[in-house]
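LAB NOTEBOOK - FOLDING QUEUE
OPERATOR: T.R.
BATCH SIZE: 2
PURPOSE: Compare the predicted structure-token outputs for two unrelated chains run back to back under identical settings.
PRIORITY: normal
REVIEWER: second-year student, initials M.K.

ITEM 1
FIELD SEQUENCE / FIELD STRUCTURE:
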Amino acid sequence: FQIISSPIFTQQKGNDFEMSDFYNVVANNRPVRTYYDDIVIVSIDNCSRLEIAQLIEIINYTEPSAIGVDVFFTYCSNEDSLIVDIFNQTPNLVLAYDAFEETNTYFAPDLKTTTWGAINLIAKHTSGIIRQFQPQFNDSIYAFSAQLAKLTKPQAFDKLVSRNKTLETICYPSQEFEIVEGISILRGEINLLDLEEILHNKIVLLGDTHNPFDQHQTPITSNMPGIIINA
């Protein structure tokens, strides 16, 4: 009963089911978890774009190995000049790019050193299960996660590229990442020294963790945030 009532049997659309989904669920229920200490997620739910810029400025002080921002800035605001300045002063910054629509942040031309990574998730159909990711979309656009690997772990990136695979399987089971609330950082609820210990030399990913429009089906859950999938 517990197996048949699993989301992989009850929430699939059409015939979007693979036997590997079953094994993913079983593996994910193991008591042993893998904690990735080199990746930290900063939740930016309900943060304004100015607050996002302020967060990046604070995070910069902790000297992370890279910062990935899973956000599109699609309209003008009065704070944009400040945001552009902060982004241009941020080393190893990766911003979101839509490879399907070929669009990105509207002030992209003003960003001189920023790297762009495609955040497009691959499924058989709309609202389908995300089992794989596409490492490369054209000669210059790589996946968001691949670009971060290129900046921080070039050997791993070279190994990925050398496989020359159109799609790569995502390993979901038993993976855990530390999540820090961005609002807590902005309110000073986390001591700067403690924050430095959490973020120093880490890959820091900024994105929504509770946005209902960025929840996706995976083999182990029906509502995984896009930023977790990228992690």
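ITEM 2
FIELD SEQUENCE / FIELD STRUCTURE:
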Amino acid sequence: RQLFTPDQSLVSGCFPVLETDDELVKKVYYTGPLTMLYLLNTNLPEHERVYLTGGPRWGASTTFFWDIAIWSELWAAVDPWMMKEQIIAWIKIDPNKHYGKDNLGGNGVGNGYSANYWCLFKIIRDYLVTTGDYAFLDETIGTKTLLDHMEAYALNWQNLSLYGTPGYEDTLYQLADFGADPWNLLECVPTYIHIVPSFNIGYAWMMRETAKLYEQKGNSAKADSLDEQAEEMMQNILKLYAGNGAWNSLYPNNKKVEVRHVLDFIYFGKFMADDVSPSIKQEMMDFLDRELRTDTWMRAQSLSDIAAKDSDRPDHGPMGSFDGWIPEVMDAMTRMG
């Protein structure tokens, strides 16, 4: 009851009440706050409250940036004070080296994920637009303002692009290359490496969102520059379409490898829906219905994917799906119409 009540002692905000007479929708929706309370921990030394998105089995004191980014808009409504405090702490952790924070010792933990820059940016952005605390943009964290950090996250793809080096001469390589180690991306999908659509979409979205912030501050020149770079990146990403609702990864020497995975569907739907043609949207929906959705759940990877037999986990492979992908797919479907 406290979680749904404003001005109580449990959290600094409150969980939204859903007004509906649909009992099935209620059941789905109100599992959310139960999950949140299950993840809530109030006796770790780093913060008064933390949400352990590693769960008790895989990370008894860990908050993963990627996992919490999936519900960061809701977090901003429920516990904005703790969210801001943890954003400040997380910015000091190197996203190239760590996928989250250990709330017992205070250090970064795990390996670097290719998603990290997008995750941290999205968490900050969702805090800003949900709370309206735009004064936070001018606060200094370390040696830079928050807005400077956001711009650095948005432009990090430039540090990853290998355009112009041997094997990367084509202008299509003006995208982020995430390397040959699948452990930094989807871990168990061996073909999802190098230039992948999803996180490049994330960078284009970040540039567009940063442009909005500069426009809000009256810096139209910076906003226009970021929007132009985002548009160029989007046009290159669209060239990775493989047909029939699926997308290619791009390897060196102009090699394209088709990957039939839900992650590209999610990122296109959530962050690039207005850039994709109606016909491609329909083909993507057909792909989702045909190859990923099941009667009671979904697959993260199609059984028809060339790497399906080598993707041996039920969270990102063909045997099932990480539960976070379900609402992400629903969000993508909504934004695609």
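REVIEWER COMMENT (ITEM 2): The first strand starts at residue 40 and ends at 41.
FOLLOW-UP: none requested
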